[in-house]
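User: Quick one: structure for sequence A, then sequence B.

Assistant: Sequence A:
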Amino acid sequence: MTDYSEQISRTLKEFFGYDNFKGGQEDVISHLLGGGDAFVLMPTGGGKSLCYQLPALIKEGTAIVISPLIALMKNQVDVLRGFVSGNESIAHFLNSSLSRQQIDDVRADLVAGKTKILYVAPESLTKEENVAILKEIKVSFYAIDEAHCISEWGHDFRPEYRRIRSFIDTIGRAPIIALTATATPKVQSDILKNLGIQDAAVFKSSFNRPNLYYEVRPKDDPEKDIVKFIKSNPGKSGIIYCLSRKKVEEMAEFLCINNIKALPYHAGLDAKVRADNQDAFLMEEVDVIVATIAFGMGIDKPDVRFVIHYDIPKSIESYYQETGRAGRDGEEGICIAYYNYKDVQKLEKFMQGKPISEQEITRQLLSEVVAYAESGQCRRKLLLNYFGEDYPKDNCGACDNCLHPKRSFDGRKQMQLVLKLILSLPEHFKIEHLACILAGVENSMVKSYKHDELDLFGAGEDHDEKYWCAVIHQGLVHHLLGKEIESYGLIYATPEGEAFAKSPTQLMLVEDVKFKAADKNDDEDEEDAMAAAALKGGGGGDPVLLSALKDLRKDLSRRLKLQPWILFGDPALEDMSILYPETIEELQRCQGVGEGKARKYGEEFIKLIKKYVEENEIERPDDFVVKTPPSKSSNKQFIITSIDRQLDLEDIASMRDLDMDELLSEIEAIVSTGFKLNLNYYIKETIDEEIVEEIYDYFRNEASSDSLEDAIKALSGDCEEMEIRLVRIQFLCEIAL
C-alpha cells in the first residue's frame, strides 16, 4: 500500500498554504487515497472540502464531485484555480449554466487529463451526453457533497440523489466518499444504504461551534427588529433566510430603503443576476444577502457575522447548516431565528396532497423545530443532542436560554409518570401522542387506540400537552428516553430510563419559553387592555406619550362615532410613540397610516405630539425611523388600473397568474399603504346585500380592530372567508382610510 503521508503534507502547504490539518481531515484523506470508501460527518466550517480536494490533486485521474449547489461549484472552482496561477484546466464544473461551447471546452480538458477535479450537478448525470463524457476518463474517486440530500429524512431531499449509485455503476466504480454537515443517525443509515457503502469508514467531528451564539425571538415586528440589529452592527456581513422568493425580494427591498446594502438570492432569479449578487456579497460590495431557505447558497465566505432566520426553517438540519455559515473563521457568529407558531401551521398546510409517508416525515421534522424554538434548555445542548452528541456543560454561556435562564424544577415525578406510561404500553408511540394521553386530550388518535380508557389517561391533566412534550424532549436529552430511527420518531424507554423509573433521583428540568401574549384582564375594557399590553411589552416607545395618544384616540372615536381602531391601530400609535412625527408626511411613516388617513385624522395627534416633545425637551430619534416601501406588490399598478376599469377579479387574477387568495393578499397590501380602491362593482355582483350589511355592521359596531382572523371567527357560519375579505377591503377604503 502506497504511503502518501509526505505528498499529503507537501500538497497541504504548497497548494493550500496550511501547515496543519483541522480535526480529522488527515485521517479521511489518507483513507480515501488508500482506496477505501468513507462517510464524513463534519459541521459547516470544519473543512469538508479539503477532504476531497487534496486527494484529488494527488490521486491519478479526475475526481467527480457531485454537488447540488451551483453557486458553491463556481466558488470552489474559482478558489482552486486561484491556487495555481494560469492553470484554469485544473478544475471545472458541469451544470445547466454552461453553454454548448463551454461544455466542449470542459470535455477537451477532461479527455486530455488536465482536470483533477470536476464538479457535477446531480441533474447533469441524467443527461446521456454528460455520462458519455465521464465514461471516457479515468475517475480517481467520487465525492458526494451535501449527502443528506439522499435521505427522505434529510432536510433537503432530492430524488435525483437516490440515483447516484446507478450512475456510478454506469460510469465505472471507484472509491466513494459521502460528506455532509448534518445527518442524524437515521439519515446516516439511509445514505450508506443507498450508496451501497455500508462498510465505509465513518469519520465524525463534533457538531459544537463554540463561537456561535443562538437566540430565538418572538416574531413581533421582525422587519423593524432586523433593521435595528443590522444598524447596530455596521459593516458586518450577514445572511437573512426567508421561506418564499417573494419575501426574499420584499426583505431585500425593505433593507435597501433603510440604507442597508442588501441583495436577493433565490432560484427564481436569472442565473447571471444570481451569480452577480453572490459575487457582490463575496467582494463585500453589499453587507447582506437575503436568500430562500429551500435554495442553499453554498457560499464559502469565512467572515459572515450573523445569520438571521426571518422564517423558522423546516428542520433542525436546515437550521444547523444555515447557521453554520456564520463565523466560519472561528470569530463571532450571531444566529437569530424569529418564531411564530403560525409559520409552522403554514408549513403544515403545504403538505396537503402529498403522500402520507412524506407528510409524516415533515410533521416529525417540524415537531423537532417547535421543540427547539419553545424550549427553555441550553440551545447548544439541544442541537448537539439532536445529532447524537452530548454537550457536557449545563450552561454554554452563548445562547439566549443560558444567558437568561428559565425557571427549573425537580421533574423526577413527571419523568417517572412518562416512563410508567411508556412501559405500560405494548407498542411505541410518538411524543405528541404520549403527551395527549397524560394531559387527558381526547383526540381521534387517542380514541382509536382506546387510550382514553387507560388508567394513566389524564394522570397529568394539571398540565397541557405542550408541557408534557417538553418533559419528554428533556427525557431524550438525559438519555432516559430514546427515539427509534427506523420509524417515525417513536419513543421508548432506555435501560437508564427503566432504572430511573424504579428508583428516581433528582432530575432538574427547565420550563419552556412562552411564545404568546398574556391573557387580558377581565376587569379591563378593550381599549384599556390594549393600552396595558402596549405599556407592558409593546414596541419600546414612550409609555407616557402612548397612553396620551390612546386617550386622544378614545375621545376622537366617541366624537366621530367610530371604533377606535378605524382611526389608528395600535401599531400606528406605538410607532408614533417611538418616532414622534410632527408633520403629516412624517405621520405616514407609521405602520398602517396612508396619506388619506393621516390627513383625515392626523392633525390632533400631531398637535399632541408636538406639545409633548416641546414640554419634555425630547430629541427626536431620526435614526429610529424604519421606512417601508410604498407597496410590496410588484403587480400594484396593474391591479389598480384593472379595478378602475371594473374588470372581474377572477380575470385580473388569471392575467397575473395568481389564485384569488393571492390576488386578495395583493389588494390588501395595496390598501394597507393607504391607497383607496373601489370593489363595489364586484361585491354587488357576487355577494348578497344582506351579507354585505352584516359584515359592514360587524366592522362598524363590534370589531375592536381590523383583524381578519377575529372577523372570520365572529362571522363564521354566516359568511364565507372570501366574502369577509372583500367587504373588509371595501369597508377600510370607505370608512377607515
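Sequence B:
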Amino acid sequence: MKVLALLTLLAAPQEPATHLDEMLAEATAATPAAILVLADQGAVELSAPILDGLGARLATAEGKQLLLLGRLQAWADQPTGVERLVELLDPADLDLSFAALQTLRLPAFHSVESANSALGIWLADQVAEDAPRLWVEGQYTLFHSSTGAHRRAALRNMRSVMMSENLDLRTAAVLALGRSGSPLGADEIDALQKISEGISSDSVLAESLLQQVEQQERFRSKIAALQSLQSSTPQSSNSKSVNKEPLAVLDELLLRIRTQHMEGDKYSDEELIAAAADGMLRRLDPHSTYFSSEEYGQFMFDMTQAYGGIGAYVNTVDNVFTILRPIYSGPAYGAGLLSGDKILAVDGWSTVDQPNDEIIKRLKGEPGTEVKLEVYRTGWTKPKDIAVERARIKLPTVQTEMLPGGILYMELIEFSEDVAMMIVRAINAAQDQGELNGVVLDLRNNPGGYLMEAVQICDVFLPKGKVVVTTKSRSGSDEVYKTRVGELVSPDVPLTILINEYSASASEIVSGALSSHGRAVTVGARTYGKGSVQNVFPMRAETDEPFQDSDSTAGPRNGLHDEWEAFEDVNGNGKYDYGARVKLTIAYYYLPDGSTIHTQRDRDGRITDPGGVHPDREVEFPQMDFVVARELNRLLAEDPFRPYAERIFAEDHVLATELAINDLRDIKRYPGWDAFYTSLDTELDPQEARRWVRRMLRGVVSDDRGKVFPGNGFLGDYVEDPQLQEAIRAVLERSKLTYEDVPEYAELIAQG
C-alpha cells in the first residue's frame, strides 16, 4: 500500500488535505471495525507528506478520530504519537479498545518503544479480573513488541493468571498463549482441551489451536538407545570424535539439569531425551514425529478406528461421567442409552471422582462379553441397571444425509480403512432411493489418513488411468498413482467438495486431483498445505511386547493387538505396550497439474510458500462478533437452550424433527418462543438464540431417529452453513437447476 501511495503522489503532487478531513468526519459516525477498514483503504489515497505529517494531528485527536489517525500512522515513513492509542483502552468501550489493540499489533508499531512502554504502563495499573478479555488482549498485543523484555513480561503475565478463580480470565489467557505460538506446557494444553469440549466460540478457537500444537514431552527414548545406535554404526579409526561429541553434549546437559536446574528433579532422563528428539525432528519439518509406546498405540487406534466396547462418545460433565452421544450403530444405543445419560457405576464400581481413562478402560473389553451399567437419566426417580453386550466398535468415518433437490451430502471425517467403499455404498443407496442430482463431499477439518484410500475415492469419480498424485523422493524415483477402474458415478452427476484451512494431506489430494481433472468444484477456504509423505519405521531400541493374535467373536486375526488378547507384560506395568516408532517425511506429493500442495519453509522454519489447494469458489465461514460471543458464553454456562429444545421434542415429535431439519429461520414456528426469549434476559439477537436452540434440538432428534446429523455444530447444516449453501448452488447449476428452483432453499431465501 505504501508503494501505491507514492505512485498516487507522483500523479497528484498537490493533493489537498481535505480528503483526510472528510475521513475524520466519517470516522466520527462509524463503528471501530469500520474505522479500521476506512483507514487501510484511505492510506492508498493519501499522499506521503500527509501520512508523514499525522503526528501533529494525533497530539490533539480524541476517540474515534484518534483511532483513525493512529491506524493511518502504520503507513507513515516514521510513525510517531501512536502511544496515544493506549488512551482509548477502556473496559466500558470494548469495541473501541480492541480496535486500538489490533492497530497497535500492526508490524509497523512492533519496534515503536514509546507505544509498547505506554501499553506496559497501562497494563501494570489494571486489575486483570476487572476486565479479563481486555487485559489479556493487551498482554497479547505487548507480546508482539520487538523488545525481548516486553515479550517475556507479556508471557509471564498471561501465565500468572492461569490459576485465577476467574474462569473468563483463565480462558482468555490460555487462548492468547495458544495464539502467540509460544511453546505450551502440559497444564496449558489440558486447559485448551477442556475449553475445546464446549460449544462456544472459545471452544472453536481452542480446537483449532490444539490442531496446531504438537504434544510436548511425547518422545520417549533412552540414552542407551542412542549409544547403541552409535555403536552399531561402523567408524574409521580417525573418526574418534565425530559421533561422540553430540552424545557428550547430551550427557553434560543431563548432568547439569539434574544437579543445578530448579526444576531438574521433576523430569526423568527419558523425558529430557524425548525433548531432545522432539527438537531434532522439529528442526526437519512439522510432520516428522517420534512415537512413544503410548502415542503409537493411540495412533494405531485412530487409524483403525475399531475397538471392543459399548459404542458411545463419553466425557465427564459437571463432575458426572456422561454419554455425550451414543454411536447409533453400537450396543449402547441398542440397549436404550441416550445422549445425556449419566453412568454412575460400571459392574458395581463407582465412576464418581474417577479419571476418564480408568472408566473407559472398564467399559472396554472383549466383544461378546457383558458389562452392567448403573444409569441415571433426567426425569427418572432413581437410577436403573442396564446390561450392555460389548461389540467391536468401528467409529463412523462417513456421515451422510439426503438434502433437498436430490443432493447427497457426505461428511468424510478422515481417510481410515475402507472409506472409499463406504462412499460407494452411500452413493449406491442414494441412487436406489431415487434420482441423484449431485454429491457434496465435505472434507473440511479432515486431517487425512491412508494415501490409497484417497486414490480409491478418486477412482469412484474418474475414468481409468487418470493420474491422481505423484510422489517424488530423494532417491529420484517418482511413483505415480492412477485410477485403476472406470468411474462408479456417472460424470453427469455433479460433484462439489468442501475444503477449509484444516483440510490436510489426503483431503488435499482428493480435492486437488478431482478439481485438476475438472470433475469437481471446490468450495470454501485454502487448505492446510501438507503435501508430504510420511513412513513409520520401528525403532530397534524399543520393540513391541509379544501378544497372541487370536480369532474371536470380533473377527479373524488382524496383526494388531486388541484389548482382549493375551500378551507378555515385559515391563510389568499391567498393560500392553507397543514399541517406539519414528515417522519421517520421505517424499512430497504432486498433483496432476504438476503443482505441489506442500507448504514450503526455509531452514529456520519460516513459511515461504503457503501451499495448499485454493478453492474454485472462496467462501468464508462468518466469525462470531466478540460481544455476541461473550453473551453466548454467559448463556451457555446457564444452559437454557437444551431444556427448551427437549420440551419442544416432548410436546411434538413431528414438529421437533421438522425444525431440526429446516426451521426456515422462522422463530414463530417455535412454541412458546416469546416467553422463552424473555426468560433469557439478554440483548442477544433472537435469530442467534434460535440458532442455538435448533443446534440443541438436532442433538435430541438424532437420538430419536438413531442417526446423527452430519457435520459439526453449524457446519453441515444447510440452513446455517454458507459454505454448504454455495456447494449446493454449484451442484444445482450443473444439473440445470438453481437454488431458487428447490422449495426448501427458496423459502430460506424468502425468510432472509
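Residues 626-714 form one domain. Residues 686-705 form the longest helix (20 residues).

User: Thanks, that's what I needed.
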